[in-house]
What does this fold into?
Amino acid sequence: MASDAPDAPGDGATRLVLFLCLSLVVLTIAVAAATAIGDYNIAPRTVVLSVTNELGLTGADIAPIEQSVVWNLRLSRALVAALAGAGLAICGAILQALLRNALAEPFVLGVSAGASTGAVCVIVLGIGAGSLSLSLGAFAGAFAAFALVALLSNGATSGPNHTILAGVAASQLFNALTSYIVTTSGNAQQARDVMFWLLGSFGGVRWPDFQLLLAVVIGGLGVCIWMARSLDAFTFGDEDAAALGVPVARIRLVLFGVTALLTATIVSMVGAIGFVGLVVPHAARYVVGPLHLRLLPACAVVGAVFMVVADIAARVIATQQTVPIGVVTALVGVPFFAIILYRARPQA
Amino acid sequence: MSVVARNLTWGVPRKTIVSDVSLTAAPGETLGLIGPNGSGKSSLLRLLAGLKTPASGRVEINGQDIARVSRKALSRQVAFVQQNAATDTNVTVRDVVRLGRTPHRSALAGWSETDETAVAHALARVDMTSRRAQPWQTLSGGERQRVHIARALAQTPQVMFLDEPTNHLDIHHQIEILRMVRDLDLTSVIALHDLNLAAMFCDRIVVLESGTVRATGTPAAVLTRAILRDVFRVDAQVSGTPDAGRPHIRFSPE
It folds into this structure.
């Protein structure tokens, strides 16, 4: 995929703006669709009027139950899905750049394994005696895992491979802890609950979740965009970045911290949804090129659209059943990714 | 700009790699660093470029202690070309050279006329202007090295450090790269393996042995039979070439 290397740097920017505008339109349509589609479908007109009613723009006569379903259940859910997709895609792009590894994804630093341990501590062991929510336990576990990785890799200042190995070690440890707790507790239903939660679900998210996630994703994206130029400098490795004037240790630590915070927040809210963080950055790179000032916003919108669509699919595939969202992201994503891989194969 | 190292010492736990090294590169000079494997060439080069922090001693670039200069400010004056830089990312030649403007740009600044001119000049200097849209992955080893020198030039440095820039290149490209570096209007310090190339292209040479400076001087002064025997452990004939008085080394097979 030879980028067309515009001579006037404006060309790429125009293309990016067009792409972002188009994606935002698609995202709006996807969110509207996610709000309309469900166990029982709501007419698009009702969806729009419910939202404008809630925003105080209209006073249309809508059945209260429909308006409540649209606003309180489905819209918040769709927007959380969009934010989660955006956040995971950004984290994937950052980690792929910092670790210089095409296989890097948000959970490479052991965050999801830590979250699962935290979750089973709360659900199975009953730590906190009911005062701790599953989300809080998962968040604490996720950060414990990240702290261990940071410790093992000297505050993430060792080389990329060292950091990846530290992540693998932490994942193994926390997964083992989770399995140990689940198997020794002997409660099959609890084990199933944890398993299910880990594969991801947007059921049960409400507006407060949205507000929290919005703050974290906007803040995280802001920091990452601020450091986008420095990320580009990592193209030829840490030492090369240093030679280009980038404070390597500081950038690594800040960006690892931001990705850990984003991932931990998302995982503790909706579970460890795989695939999005790995694949969306590759897809976005294919469209807007490898420079991060363009790549990160593109990842955010593509990730958001992808996750909303996956959530719709999760509800449509099996009615009356809830298919874990992580299963759908892979089922929907792999064929799409296969096309990109095929088209981007090296022309030897 | 001059580069002065004063009593540099650096090492890893339980092993000193650079020991009490002092040297000077005069403005505009091409200074060669030679020495056998493990003599500390690469480490010394990184200390000089500010990529490693010495345990003791200091480096002054144009009279200023580089430890007191920020990483970013230093990168506007000093460029570093590593050997065999590689990436899996799909970048074009132009993208790579543009990276050289990193220390000159703030986080969200646009692409300025100055940036564009610096990149255009750098590409022209290494004769890669017509290849600027080509993917970096499709370049040959010599072309990649030229692009990396262009990237260093886009930093508009006054000093350039090169770590074995001719590694893995054929003889034509080795000479081409070194000729280009020598003719640049800046101070350069080059770590080199090939002694004859060092003799051909360096104004002065520093010979390192086990992390210390064994000899410093013009190629004719340091590339003597005695040093080749003691430091490099080879038996060789050294003859002066008639043109510029540069020594030529002929190694004995036995």
In short: The domain at 11-343 of chain A is CATH 1.10.3470.10 (ABC transporter involved in vitamin B12 uptake, BtuC). Confidence is low (pLDDT under 50) at residues 1-9 of chain A. Chain A has 14 helices and no strands.
